[in-house]
Amino acid sequence: MSDNQNEPREYDAVLGGQNSIPVNAAVLGGIAGVKSRLASPAIEVRIAALSEAPKYGEAGLDLILGALQDKSIQVKSAAFLLLKDRDEEKIKQGLQNYFPIFEFDVITVDADGQENSRRKSFARFFPEDLGNGIVLEMVYIPGGTFMMGSPNDEAGRDDDESPQHQVTVPAFFAGKYPITQAQWEAVMGNNPSYLKGEKLPVECVSWYDAVEFCEKLSETTGKTYRLLSEAEWEYACRAGTTTPFHFGETITPELVNYITESNEPTDVGSFPPNAFGLYDMHGNVEEWCSDKWLDNYDGAPTDGSSWESGNNCRMLRGGSWANDPTNCRSAVRSCEQPIYGERFNGFRVACVAVQPPTPNKIIADEKLSPAETFQFQVITLYQWGRIVKTEQRQAEYFSENLGHGVSLEMVKIPGGTFTMGPPDIYRVSGDRIPQYRVTVPTFYAGKYAITQEQWEAVMRNNPSCFKGEKRPVENVSWYDAVKFCEKLSQTTRKTYRLLSEAEWEYACRAGTTTQFHFGETFDLDLLNYDTHYSIDVGSCPPNAFGLYDMHGNVEEWCSDRWHDNYDGAPTDGSSWETGTNNDRLTRGGSCYSSSPDLCESAFRDHSAPNDVYCARGFRVACMAA
Questions:
Q1: How far apart are CA 448 and CA 454, in angstroms?
Q2: CA 155, CA 157: separation in Å to the nearest integer?
Q3: Cα gap 545→506, rounded to integer Å
Q4: What's the pLDDT at 94?
Q5: Which residues of the chain, if any, have pLDDT below 70?
Q6: How far is the C-alpha of 49 from the C-alpha of 44, rounded, in Å?
Q7: Distance from the Cα of residue 255 to its chain's centroid
Q8: 109: closest CA among 255, 208, 282, 300?
Q9: Alpha carbon of 249 to those of 13, 101, 155, 330: distances in Å?
Q10: C-alpha to C-alpha distance for 178 and 53, rounded to whole angstroms
Q11: Cis peptide before 253 (omega within 30 of 0)
Q12: Mutual orientation of helices 207-221 and 478-492 as an angle, nearest 10°?
């Protein structure tokens, strides 16, 4: 290295675009800085960089065009939103390559059902290749504000459509059609429908089935697919209209498949679309939405999000081939128990479109994982329960602000390789064999199991049996936990999820090979078991990674399906999604565990994903940026 104080040194930070760039310097600004951030592995950093690119003219636009090829749909959609209203020919061509246009006729009718207008329109979409020639077309739905519910004078309305209220819905992508049987088979490998046909909508599917389809599709594609919220559904159905149907005041058998002589579904796309380019929003099959049922709109969200308070029934929208016209209106609401799948129940999927931040947010967005640390003590026990040593440790973390003074602390878990499963000396069950080596990449894990105040901040309800802000949320199903992760991801623009089973055991052991992370035995001050009530998170000492309550208190949902042993298990720390057993993994034991053995690092259990239990909660993971 040069001794000249005026020469740039290795790793000096410069403002790109104003100075010559030293070798290995960190570039903060200018077009060079944008390029550097677009190469970041962190999705949020790439999205933030895109918002600054238009300031640099043609070079900046070229970078945004290049981002249309990004492997992340969040980054691609952010680039799309920056380019969609521009007229340059090269931009039009670039958009056509990755978000092509389709044209369609938009029809309106008078009060007698007679066509009174027809106009050409178009929409953009992206195609999702499901294999074997099966494609899922996802249409861009521009964000906007609308009046949800029906006016008092609308014929056939019900009180559950009141009060009308204004809702602002962010942009998203929605399925052009309800999911077809061909698409279902491509993802799920079966066909539950009563009346078979590749282009017919899939039916006889429960809400849980629809959620599982979204999860498998998300895992396969790397995008986040989900059901539409009720507000998104009505906004997408109306497509700017305020009449009972998106066609106008009434419908006819030429426009919608409702109760007719055939009494059966029709191929998707058999009838004209609405102004957003969506087909079959009225009739054919009722469509599951994500929300729980409530009797009216008092207290409903106004941001387009799913309404998770209320009873366990789930929303259905749009009416079906078995309904009269009144029950196919844009505002009509119905519900069903989530375990039931009737002949007229289907669904449509949504995918999030990420709006790029304004440039003045970039500084905040680039500090996604601040190098904050916290100090803690790690306790190791001797075989008979005596403390052998107490070590001072520290760990990195970042804090997620959930609003109303509630935060979520995410601890950095350094990647590494460990042996999963117990050695013979500790093994009491055949579901923990064979021992095998797993390499786990770096990730972030919740410092604690999700608390009731964190759940309420995101989901706006509290299903727990043992109430207390700092107690872990419980009485939540695996589906509920996944839904929490989806809403948290949407709000924060990070990717939150459940831990895989391998990540959970690796994070629990924190470098140990003993039965518990604190040693070969236990002490009642170190874990909460067999008390039959939960306690505040963090009441017991942490492990060497700085994670609390990995043993006892509440057992924690993991993402994996259940397998009877580890034969064929992934060795890269990923979730094990193959197999025919629909049960999901739980780990760590609980306050209801009758023995400390049921709280060991290697202990495994499982339950149906729709099952709830007053000693079962979860912890979240986040990708390391």
A1: 11
A2: 6
A3: 10
A4: 87
A5: 1-29, 260-262, 353-371, 382-385, 425-428, 624-625
A6: 9
A7: 34
A8: 255
A9: 63, 29, 10, 11
A10: 37
A11: no
A12: 50
Q: How far apart are CA 231 and CA 167, in angstroms?
A: 7
Q: How far apart are CA 593 and CA 596, in angstroms?
A: 7
Q: Could you give the CA distance from residue 547 to residue 545 in angstroms, rounded to a whole number?
A: 6
Structure tokens at 153: 């004078």
Which class for 207: exposed (0-12), middle (13-18), buried (19 or more C-beta within 10 A)?
buried
Three-state secondary structure readout of 511-568 = CCCCCECCECCCCCCCCECCCCCCCCCCCCCCCCCCCCCCCECCEEEEEEECCCCCCC
- In 3D space, the residue among 253, 281, 226 whose CA is nearest the CA of residue 73 turns out to be 226
- Say if residues 203 and 346 touch (Cβ distance below 8 Å): yes
pLDDT computed for residue 72 by the predictor: 81
User: Backbone phi, then psi, for 76, in 5-degree steps?
Assistant: -60, -45
Contacts of 424 (CB under 8 A, 6+ apart): none
Interatomic CA distance for residues 473 and 619, integer angstroms = 10
Count of beta carbons in the 10 Å neighbourhood of residue 581 = 11
To 10 degrees, the CA torsion angle through 548, 553, 559, 561? 140
Kindly report the three-state secondary structure assignment for every residue of 209-262.
Answer: HHHHHHHHHHHHHCCCEEECCHHHHHHHHHCCCCCCECCECCCCCCCCECCCCC
- The pLDDT value recorded for residue 22 is 41
Residue written as token pair 């861009």: 140
Query: What is the rounded CA–CA span in Å between residue 229 and residue 489?
Result: 15
Instruction: State if pTM tops 0.85.
Output: no
CA distances from 541 to 355, 466, 525, 556, 608 (A): 41, 22, 8, 18, 31
Q: Which residues pair with 102 in a beta bridge?
A: 123
Task: Say which residues have a Cβ less than 8 Å from residue 199's Cβ, sequence separation at least 6.
Answer: 180, 181, 182, 267, 268, 269
Within 8 A by CB and 6+ apart from 547, the residues are 411, 413, 445, 446, 447, 448, 507, 508, 510
DSSP 470: T
Number of DSSP helices (H) and strands (E) in the chain, helices first: 12, 26
Radius of gyration of the chain (CA): 27
Strands (E), 132-195: 134-141, 144-148, 165-169, 172-175
Give the pLDDT score at 541. 92
Q: For the sheet with 115-131, list strands across it.
A: 101-109, 115-131, 134-141, 172-175, 349-352, 225-227
CA angle, residues 507, 510, 515, in degrees to nearest 5: 100
Q: Is the dihedral of CA 607, 577, 483, 496 positive or negative?
A: positive
Dig out the tokens for 353 from the structure. Answer: 């479109």
Secondary structure letter of residue 204 according to DSSP: S
How many alpha carbons lie under 13 Å from residue 460 in its C-beta half-sphere? Answer: 13
Torsion, Cα 512 514 517 518, to 10 degrees, reads -120
Q: How many residues would you count in the chain?
A: 625
How many angstroms separate the CA atoms of 237 and 315, rounded? 15
Burial class of residue 255, CB neighbours in 10 A (0-12, 13-18, 19+):
buried
Question: In 261-317, which ranges are E strands?
Answer: 286-292, 314-317
CA within 13 Å, CB half, 398: 19
Query: Amino acid identity, residue 472?
Result: P
- How far is residue 13 CA from its own chain's centroid? 36
